[in-house]
Amino acid sequence: MMAEQGRPERPAPAPTERQASLLQTVKAVASSFFGVRGRRAHEQDMAKLNPVVVIGVGIALAAVFVLTLITIVRMVVK
Prior knowledge:
Layout: H1 22-34, H2 39-48, H3 51-77
């Protein structure tokens, strides 16, 4: 179907599809950092997770990881 001005209409999400919560997204990204995500869980995540949220959570967790390492090094060096 075509919407106004010739742009295609976005399909409505299926009623059975459910978006992952922020906590589920954080868990998925954190487990991916350590490489412990199973194949089945990965496939389920791909169906639920919003890529924009995954990128944001990934950047935030990477920043927390780097700041933690900096803090640990500063404590050891003192």
